[in-house]
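Retry 2 of 3 after timeout on previous attempt. Resubmitting structure tokens to design endpoint.
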């Protein structure tokens, strides 16, 4: 897989740790970032994974940047591209020909709370449950078919940073367990629907408290 990340790279680290620990039969062929200062690049280098930074400022448009970025990604021949804390919208012209091969982890129970500041949105909405989702990337912002989710209760008096920390702790096993399914060939996108073991899912897979899918 190739991993795209813009920030500290904690989800990337969860992937690298799972591979190193023999819990994920996969390889990270390269890590790419739109920010040269991203800690994710340091994590990649520490693990011996090629790390690449490409600045959007050197391109005339988002489409031109994405074309260059994905040309570099494609040169590695990944089976899957994982957006793990990648904070840029990707041009539809890049996503469409790669449908079914790009996934993202998003900190909400999609379709609720798309975009940024999801924990703040959840608290302002007064929901009893929040969480994270892994979904296929489509031309719509956080709108692609959802593969799997992890649910996190919202506690009385919750503040944004506390809720964010609890969700992040569930993001890591959610992403790793979902990637285990991809590595085993059990997940596919067909006719814009998620298929699990050859059958269309009627609802996203749910990660239990013991980090297994129900």
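Retry 2 succeeded. Sequence:
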């Amino acid at each position: 897989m190739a991993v795209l990340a813009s920030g500290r790279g904690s989800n990337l680290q969860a992937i690298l740790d799972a591979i190193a620990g023999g819990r994920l039969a996969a390889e990270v062929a390269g890590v790419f970032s739109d920010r040269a200062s991203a800690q994710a690049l340091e994590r990649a280098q520490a693990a011996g994974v090629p790390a690449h930074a490409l600045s959007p400022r050197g391109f005339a448009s988002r489409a031109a940047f994405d074309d260059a970025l994905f040309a570099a990604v494609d040169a590695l021949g990944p089976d899957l591209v994982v957006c793990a804390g990648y904070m840029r919208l990707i041009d539809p012209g890049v996503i469409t020909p790669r449908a079914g091969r790009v996934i993202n982890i998003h900190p909400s129970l999609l379709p609720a709370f798309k975009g940024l500041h999801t924990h703040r949105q959840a608290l302002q909405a007064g929901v009893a449950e929040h969480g994270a989702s892994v979904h296929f990337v489509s031309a719509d912002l956080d709108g692609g078919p959802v593969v799997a989710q992890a649910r996190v209760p919202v506690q009385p008096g919750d503040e944004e940073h506390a809720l964010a920390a609890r969700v992040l702790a569930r993001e890591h096993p959610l992403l790793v367990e979902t990637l285990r399914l991809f590595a085993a060939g059990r997940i596919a996108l067909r006719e814009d629907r998620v298929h699990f073991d050859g059958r269309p899912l009627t609802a996203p897979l749910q990660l239990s408290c013991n980090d297994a899918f129900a």
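Attempt log closed. The chain has one domain: 2-207.
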